[in-house]
Amino acid sequence: MTLGIIAALPQEIADLLKLMKGQMQTHTVGMRTFYQGKIGGQSCVLVLARVGKVAASATCVTLIQKFGVDRIIFTGLAGGVSAEVNVGDIVIGTSFCQHDMNAEPLFPRYEIPLLGKQYFVSDSELNAALIVGTTQFLQGEGQYSLQRMLPKENIDLFGLTNMKIHQGLILSGDQFIGSAEAVLELRNNFPDALCTEMEGAAVAQVCYEYGTPFAVLRVISDKANNSAGYDFTRFLNEVAPVVSSGILLNFLLS
C-alpha cells in the first residue's frame, strides 16, 4: 500500500521531508517534484501541489496514474467559516463542495457539470485514523505531540491551549477569503460549512472519479476575515509545519 501526501505550500511539508528515511527517490513530473520513500515504515509519495484547484487536480492525477498510490491525504491550512471553528482547530473534511462553481442556467449552482454532484465525500476509515492521530497530538498521548514539538511561546502566542477537532463540510474555491463580507456570504450559502480553502474539493472530485480513497486534514490558520493575510503568514511559518507533520506522523505510526 502506498500513500500519497499532498500539500499546497512548502512550509506544510518541510518537516515530513526531513523524516522521509531510506532510499528516497525524487521524480519531476509536470513541473512538480515527487518524493518517494518511507515514513514510519509506510511507503509514501510526498509532493508539493502548489495553490489552487487546477494545481491540486493535476498533482492528484499524477499520484494515481504514475505512482499508483492507493490512498491520498491532502494536508494544509484553511480559513474558518463556522463561528464554532477557531484558530488552531483541526478540521477533517467529510464532505466537499466548490463554492465558486456556477454553471447556471445549464446546471444547478455548485453542481459539477455532467457528474450531477455538488458534494463529494471522503473515506471514513482514513478519517477515523486521522482523528486518532490528531487526538494523540493534542493530548500528548502519541510519540509526536503539540507540547513536545511546539515551543510554549508559540502555543501561548497563537492561543493553542484549547485546540478542537471538527468533522464536516469543507469549501474550496480559487480565491483567498479575506473579508467578513465574503465569510458571511459563505455562511449564508453553506450554513454547515466549517472552513474554506483552495484545493480540497478538487482532490475530492478527482479521487471520486478514480475510485481512490482520500482524506483532507486542515489546520485553521485564520478566521477568513480582514486580518486573514497577516494571521495566515505568521501561522504558516511558525505553527503549520509542526501541527501537520505531528498529526501525520502519529497517523503513519499507528
Q: Distance between the terminal alpha carbons, to the nearest Å? A: 15 Å
Instruction: Write down the CATH topology.
Output: Rossmann fold
Query: What's the CATH architecture?
Result: 3-Layer(aba) Sandwich
Extended strand count: 10
| Outline type | globular
Can you list the strand order of the major beta sheet?
5-9-8-6-10
Written as H for each helix and E for each strand, in order along the chain, the element string is EHEEEHEEEHHHEHEHEHH
Structural class: alpha/beta
Number of domains: 1
Give start-end ranges of low-pLDDT stretches: none
Mean pLDDT: 91
Percent helix, as a range, is 25-40%
Number of helices: 9
**Largest beta-sheet characterization:** 5 strands, mixed, barrel
Strand content: 25-35%
CATH class: Alpha Beta
Q: Roughly how many Å is the radius of gyration?
A: 17 Å
Walk me through the structure.
The chain has 254 residues and is α/β, with parallel strands linked by helices. The protein has a single domain (3-241), classed as Rossmann fold, CATH 3.40.50. Helix content is 36%, strand content 29%. The protein has 9 helices and 10 strands. The protein has helices spanning 14-19, 53-65, 124-139, 146-149, 152-157, 180-189, 200-210, 228-238, 240-253, and strands at residues 2-7, 21-29, 32-39, 42-48, 71-80, 90-98, 120-121, 165-172, 193-197, 214-222. The protein has a 5-stranded mixed barrel with strand order 5-9-8-6-10, surrounded by 5 helices. The longest helix has 16 residues, at 124-139. The radius of gyration is 17 Å and the shape is globular. It starts with a strand and ends with a helix. 46% of the residues are buried. The mean pLDDT is 91.
